[in-house]
Amino acid sequence: MLAQDCQAAATPEPPGPPARDCVAAWWDMVERNLRSFPHSCSTLGRKIAALYDNFTSKSLKEHIFPPLIDMLIYFNFFKAPFLVDLKKPELKIPHTVNFYLRVEPGVMLGIWHTVPSCRGEDAKGKDRGWYEAALRDGNPIIVYLHGSAEHRAASHRLRLVKVLSDGGFHVLSVDYRGFGDSTGKPTEEGLTVDAICVYEWTKARSGITPVCLWGHSLGTGVATNAAKVLEEKGCPVDAIVLEAPFTNMWVASINYPLLKIYRNIPGFLRTLMDALRKDKIVFPNDENVKFLSSPLLILHGEDDRTVPLEYGKKLYEIAHKAYRNKERVKMVIFPPGFQHNLLCKSPTLLIAVRDFLSKQWS
Question: In this entry, which stretches build a coiled coil (predicted)?
């Protein structure tokens, strides 16, 4: 029996297919690939031709100008101050925590939450959960929407946050998509979605504590865009503060310092407008305020050369005319010395803001 088993184990496997059959199969595969090669080349050729047609169907300025204007409007590539660890806000400003908010796939916003200075001692050593719960403590909340360039650690922005924190406000400093360490690419629609997302996230955690949208410069357009959408949804913003606002981006761009020197070049203004239309950059503050009912405070400096005072005045006139309740619209003009970014240095800024909001929220 053992001998039979050993014999069975030693029995060789049946021979495989002859070598010539393997060669024939390999050659068939090569022939099939060769037959499909012209089709692949044809498909690639059509793609290349389509790309070429798309490129040559537009002028060079149409290829260059929209991305260039996009860069100049948002200036988000200038991520100053440099060498700042945005994950460690405590190195720049006290009683502040960093966190991230996912808006949509591929878009994560970096945000600093600074609690009122009166809660500074309580905040020591606390985690994000404590900060989030603190939003219900009754101290008013500001969602701060900054202007173009730099990020939430810029010195003038930190100075404003400190003033507001000392005045008893929570401040959520938001870096839009593409700014700071936030992911994504900035567009007008995208920045608006970011602001709405942060506002709704905050309202869901604030209980009965009021939440105010505060926009500066470019951020004023983001603020009114977001406020209009929320108004249409039946959830008007608790209050809006517009610092150094423009009427709309088309008008503001003509006086933008980096573009002003080119506006006398023949055809420049038309090219600029075409580029803004193509990129859908409008930020129509002058149209948005016509549809708002939220308390609206406009702040502007007399010596603002980036966004001239006349734009703020014009926007106030439009809003005051459109609002049914005229007491809900107010403008405060600051004397020379604060320019575009430094209204936070005015000793009357906090007084004006607290006075207006307390009356509206009483």
Answer: none
